[in-house]
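Bug #77: duplicate submission created two jobs. Keeping one. Sequence:
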Amino acid sequence: MKTIFIAGTDTGVGKTLIAGLLAGYLIGKGKSVVTQKWIATGRTNDIKRHWKIMGFVPQESRKYILPYAFKLAASPHLAASYEQKLISKKKIKRSFLMLLQRYDVVVVEGTGGLLVPIDRKSLLIDLVKDLKLSVLLVAHNKVGAINHTLLSIEALKKRKIPVIGIVFNNLSETKKLILEDNQKIIREISGIAVLGVLPRSNNIDLLKSRFKAIGDKIDLS
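Kept job's structure:
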């Protein structure tokens, strides 16, 4: 496995954080690692946040690391249309393969959820399937997480896309009973491993420490 796709059950669930933490963990294991985001929408600095978390700035052209960036904070298809542009799947695939040739591991962060459209016919998940990527699913642990997570897993299974496991980002104001049961029932129903849970925190050193146990469970062989 030379690639891990970081998928979210929704937008704002912590994909950027997990992508950066995973890349940093793998660098600590002696791997050459680069992160990539195929499509960014809105005035976000997700790639730069990856670099800050992983403590490494790749010397690659930004056009390979971030093939598309749009100003409108919306679904990729709408953000591109708003600027009268089209998203080329061929361009994304070329950028991905270029990085894949140069690094041990490419960590790709998704945009929003798996079923967001990139144009009027194609969804983000279609690219994941075409490139035969394995998925690490990130879920916001809160009320509603069960439905969002199980639907995402169902979409992945339907397309025979391998799921490495689930990482939960806890929402601090959610009751402990709900936080714990979400993990248990999702694991029981889906059969997908819960790799770990991260607290809601801005302390990167704490998050890196907590992520180590999650990283240890990911098999890159």
